[in-house]
Amino acid sequence: MTENRKKWYRLDNVAKIIPSQTEGADTRIMRLSCELKEDVDPEILQAAFDRSISEFHYFNSVLRKGLFWYYLDESEEHYVVRREDTPAFSPLYFPGRRCLLYRVNYFGRRINLEMFHVLADGTGAFEFFRTLILYYLSMRHGLSPAKDPAGASVSERTDDSYRQFYTSSEERSQLKTLTSNRAYQIRLARDGNMQNHIVEGAISASAFLKLARSHETTAGILSTALFIEAILEEMGPRDRRLPIVISVPVNLRSFFPSRTTRNFFGVIRIAYRAEQYDGTLSSIIGPVAQDFDRQLQIDQITGNMNSYSALEHNLAIKMVPLFIKDIVTGQYNRAAKKGVTASMSNIGVIKIPEEYVPYIDRFCGSMSSRNMQMTVTTFEDRMVFGAVSGYEQHSVLLHFFRKMADLGLDVELSTNDYNAPEAERK
Fold it and tell me: What is the residue-averaged pLDDT of the chain?
């Protein structure tokens, strides 16, 4: 009889530095939500979860410390879904404790997945979340089970694509560049309890795309330009000497043939200086579009990817004990944050089999942040901006959504902030 042995996994190159980056409100947790058109049935959700996690067993792992690196140890713990009763983005990783690195909960019509970034990026986490939602709806309404559109095998889902596509000859020093630049930092009062505040804004996707085309640009570039314009309104005269820098994650699966559900993304930085602004949105769109075009070239993307992979392939770094790596990467992270004003990511257009569509109202994504982060999701004609900040005030986010309204878009706002008016809570 063959003994069944638990598996363990090396961390991918992005995941290696994440444990040392968790501090304060930045718990390094991503959150995906699906709002249905009816209340959630907990028993069916549990059954759907059990079936889903059996197909993505890699996610059922705990984070362990080795002498030189962290690693993931597969767990047999059975997770029980619960009614949401903790603040969003509450920590999932506690050093020295064998804790599963995700949570699935529900409240009213919403199903939520929260996941520690060590396990996956937004694309990988959404593959699991999509499977969960489809199993839930198929069980609840007797729909035919949907197939995995990627058709990925277990080994393909757990591939370390940074290692697979690393080429040392094209290595660049992007990590050094990130720590050497300074950007404008939003000057608002931070939450004293180190809690994340969520503000969701929902608009018509077709109306936003039409608006982007009227400005001869894309929805992604227009979103970034509006975010920059909202931040400009917060800047005082002395602040304008520093650029606004928006960090934008890029899904590397668009450039390399990977089906992994682990981390596989790069980051580009869109920089804009206040003196370029003449009071019109067009004066932001032009420079932002040029920056996107320059940085989304394959040589730039490859260099970006290799800069992360270089960490693993550097012999000197390999031989440094983990506790020293934690200190160094923590210092790097704090220095790198000085070079970023805020972040914006785009999960993209969410595809669901047609027979499932009538049961779903919207999807939303968000990411914990000490500063400010915005995630865009699009499902059918509903485009949702999930904005998260570690600040008590939401003036930048209100500027952002008001600018959309000024451009003729109908904006539906909701928030988890108990200080907000009742009509805006959700």
Answer: 88
Residues facing 374 on adjacent strands: 344, 387
Which strand (E) or helix (H) includes residue 347?
Answer: strand 342-349
Let me know: does 263 contact 161? Beta carbons within 8 Å: no
Pick from 35-39, 59-63, 172-176, 207-211: least confident: 172-176
Q: What's the one-letter identity of residue 378?
A: T
pLDDT for position 303: 82
Q: Is 19 exposed, middle or buried (0-12, 13-18, 19+ CB in 10 A)?
A: buried
Q: Which two tokens stand for residue 122?
A: 């937004």
| pLDDT tens per residue across span 204-219 | 999 999 999 999 999 9
Which domains are delineated in the chain? 8-151 (3.30.559.10), 174-350+365-424 (3.30.559.30)
Name the 3-class secondary structure at 409: coil
Within 243-305, strands assigned E span 244-251, 265-272
Is the CB of residue 231 less than 8 Å from the CB of residue 184? yes
> What phi and psi, each to the nearest 5 degrees, are found at residue 391?
-100, 155
Give dist(CA 266, CA 359) in Å, integer: 34
Span of 108-112, 202-206, 304-308 with lowest mean pLDDT: 304-308
Q: How does 314-350 read in b/e, with b if 16+ C-beta sit within 10 Å? A: eeebeeeebeebbeebbebbeebbbbbbbbbbbbbeb
Residue 12 CA to residue 262 CA, distance in Å, equals: 8
- What is the tally of helices (H) and strands (E) in the chain? 12, 15
How confident is the model at residue 351, as a pLDDT?
93
Report how far residue 179's alpha carbon sits from residue 161's, in angstroms, rounded to the nearest whole number.
25
> Residue 101: CA atoms inside 13 Å, Cβ hemisphere, count?
28
**Structure confidence at residue 69 as a pLDDT band (50, 70, 90):** confident
Tokens of 263: 């981390």
Q: 185: which 2 tokens?
A: 């930092």
Gap between the Cα atoms of 382 and 374, Å rounded: 16
Which of the two residues, 113 and 23, has the higher pLDDT score? Answer: 113
CB atoms within 10 A of CB 193: 8
Q: Six-digit token pair at 338?
A: 């000085």
Residue type, 360: I
